[in-house]
Amino acid sequence: MTARPKAFDDSLTKTRRSFFGRIAGLFRQEKITEETWDELEMLLLQADVGTKTTIRVMDALRQQVKANTPPEQAQEMLKAELLAILKPVQRAYLPGSRLLHVIFVVGVNGSGKTTSIAKLAKYHKSRGQTVLLAAADTFRAAAIDQIKIWGERVGVDVVAHQPGADPGAVVYDAIGAAQARHADVLIIDTAGRLQTKYNLMQELRKLRGVAQKQVHLAPHETLLVLDATTGQNGLSQAKAFAEAVQVTGVVLAKLDSSSKGGIVFAIADEYKLPVLFVATGEKLDDWAEFDPQAFVDSLFENRE
Amino acid sequence: MFDSLSDKLQEVFRKLSGKGRLSEQDVNEAMREVRMALLEADVNYKVVKDFTARVRERAIGSDVMQSLTPAQMVIKIVNEELVATLGEAVHLDLSGPPPAVIMLVGLQGSGKTTMAAKLALYLRRSGERPLLVAADVYRPAAVAQLETLGKQIDVPVHNEGTLVAPPVICENALKRAHREGFSVVILDTAGRLQLDDRMMAELEQVKRVTQPREALLIVDAMTGQEAVAVAEEFNKRVALTGLILTKVDGDARGGAALSIRAVTGVPIKFMGIGEKVSDLEVFYPDRLASRILGMGDVLTLIEKAETSISEEQARKMEQKLRKASFTFEDLIEQLHAVKKMGSLNDIIGMIPGMQQFSKQLPEEETDKALQVSEAIVNSMTREERRNPKVINASRRRRIAKGSGTSVQQVNQLLRQFTEMQSMMKQMQGKKGRNLLSMFR
Predict the structure, then answer these.
(1) How sure is the predictor about A21, in pLDDT bands with cuts at 50, 70 and 90?
(2) Strand bridging mode B280-282 / B268-272
(3) Which listed CATH number (3.40.640.10, 1.10.1520.10, 3.10.450.50, 1.20.120.140) goes with B3-86?
(4) pLDDT higher than 80, residue B428
(5) Contact B341/B306 with Cβ under 8 angstroms?
(6) A42 contacts in B (CB within 8 Å)?
(7) Residue A145 and residue B140: Cβ atoms within 8 Å?
(8) CA separation (Å) from A9 to A259, A290, A295, B193?
(9) Contact by Cβ (8 Å): B205, B167
(10) How far, in Å, are A16, A106, B334, B365, B414 from residue B436 at the CA level?
(11) Is A285 helix (H, G, I), strand (E, B) or coil?
(12) Is the ipTM of this complex over 0.95?
């Protein structure tokens, strides 16, 4: 198997043991029975894969699996089915080179945006790039303080206004500052918002417009940060944010929890959005590029 | 709020209602849909299984009451089982010698800090003297966040920075509360993963030194299947006394609350319904169940109106409506009352049969229209407000200028106001048909 970041691997261990470990166990049985199918369906549903995607995967698998199919082979088929959902939508993060990359980070309240931004900043910095952060969450109490603290820890500058200031002005100034300093990457932290709040989604659209006017083809990435414990509402989030601000990829945050992250399959399946990163812990290094092959492979790895 | 689930169930029962009697096959089909809907609402798989089994058994076994259609009968059973699963409404226990300690716990990002402020405001309004305690020393600026919120609602915050261990901070806060006569102490603890043994041990220690009367788990309404595992572990470590569901103002169906209640038996106490510190709702299982079934939440609406509009105000308004002596001053008063109740969409969403309507109205449009109306009325003289008939062309120009609107907009409001007055006269016998057009 290809080498993959340790953090990513570690974070998956729990998931693997608790959930997909059981699937692997299922397929070690002698024969595939009706009970196996039920159990499989239950396990997918309990991983937040969602009813629609679960039914789709199950139907596809049932068509391929014959009465005499060995369980190990059925396991390979299931892997292939799951991978077939993730792989077609996968792509490289920030393709191409340009003077300044503008990255928007959006998501619902409490999904883990600010922490993810700190980790993303560290990721870029360790690649020798100059990073600037924009504190465009001027709404939530102490959000600006929070990103400033992270900025200090990572060692990158933060462009910020006063609490309650117009986030559009923050974005405008931050782009100006990034250009003046010849920064390579500008990461914009936006206020958390529920996807059903019309006004707030419009505001996000406006922020995007501000960036578009100043930098060619900006924003170059719009990342939706998704809490890995999120259930089916993740689909609604992906849909609404994609419609409002053309999300280009998902960051799966808090995958260190015992949560399964199964919503990733549903989102890729229904909205064709790739997962670009997984955030796995509270340390700045707990951050890894998402690798669908490794993700699915490791889910089935037998570690005992 | 729980619209999608209610839509789904309604769809199921529409299919059923076409038939004369409730056969086993009908029930099975309904249960398949109920099961799917509940799963999509993030209700835990096992809870769904038990729930549908119970409903199925009752539906097939029971006679359809004469006054009901088979579909109504199934709705009735589903509703009753939902209410039973959600359990009794339980209020905060602040009994015993003060100060009563309330400990808030939960995963990262579930909304503890915001909820701490909301609870503090709620308790202060009900006559308590709350003290907020900044016990999250880990998340950057969590202390600053609580300080800011505390200032907003004018509730003192006990803050010892981020270098003191949380159990020590909480112990000190308790001493301070004794000394300074606070009646309730709200501990805002750091978000933590239920599998993080070190952090969970810290929580146990906080519990030991403060002996909280309430240990409330804060759960994001968007949580998936994992909710049960989270709740079980927190319950095991700190013996939860209640559950608060946050971010219920989104379109998450909040099945997590149903699961946690079913599996742990911990009662649900509040719901967080917005980012403003006043956006807190007491939880009532029967209301939630009827909301799940798409019957609206009239009771919640009534309670909201009660806290926003005083009885006296309401009585006066009613008299005015009867006499049709409704003036612009009354309109402003009403607009303020409506604003206090939340966004217009939230309110409409609670009225039975109006949920779909609320989806069609962009929040921006309604709220903006309210703002414009208010600006126009604010630019009128007292006389003009009481007697709009005196508003001639020159006055209209002045009002438009003063309110930053156009004469057309002023005209529009005046016209709507006249319509409103005449409508109110008509309303004395009938029900209002087009109340919303007033604000357009």
Answers:
(1) low
(2) antiparallel
(3) 1.20.120.140
(4) no
(5) no
(6) 45
(7) yes
(8) 15, 11, 9, 18
(9) yes
(10) 53, 33, 13, 12, 16
(11) coil
(12) no
The tokens for B315 are 């009585």
Q: A222-256, pLDDT tens digit by residue?
A: 999 999 999 999 999 999 999 999 999 999 999 86
The torsion angles phi and psi of B137, rounded to 5 degrees, stand at -100, 5
Tracing tokens 């009827």 back to the chain, one arrives at B290
End-to-end distance of chain A based on CA atoms, in angstroms?
18
Q: Does domain B100-295 bear CATH number 2.60.40.10? A: no
**Record: contact B225-A110, CB cut-off 8 A:** no
On the question of pLDDT at B103 being above 60, the answer is yes
Residue A157 has which token pair?
């500058």
b/e sequence B28-41, b meaning 16+ C-beta within 10 Å: eebbebbbbbbbbb
Mutate to test the interface with A, among B225, B233, B244, B364 (most CBs of A within 10 A): B225
Range(s) of chain B covered by CATH 3.40.50.300: 100-295
Please name the helix (run of DSSP H) or strand (run of DSSP E) that holds residue A91, with its range, or none.
Answer: none
Share of chain A residues as helix, strand and coil, in percent rounded to the nearest 5: 50, 15, 35
Residue B439: what pLDDT? 36
How many Cα atoms sit within 13 Å of A5 on the Cβ side? Answer: 15
Q: How far apart are the first and last CA of chain B?
A: 24
This prediction's pTM: 0.76
Query: Could you give the residue range(s) of every CATH 1.20.120.140 domain in chain B?
Result: 3-86
| Domain B301-437 sits in CATH 1.10.260.30 | yes
For residue A217, the number of C-alpha atoms closer than 13 Å in the C-beta half-sphere is 11
H-run or E-run covering B212:
none
Find, in chain A, the residue whose alpha carbon is nearest to that of B194: A257
Q: List every span in chain B annotated with CATH 1.10.260.30.
A: 301-437
Count, residues in chain B: 440
Taking CB atoms and an 8 Å cut-off, how many pairs form between chains A and B?
147
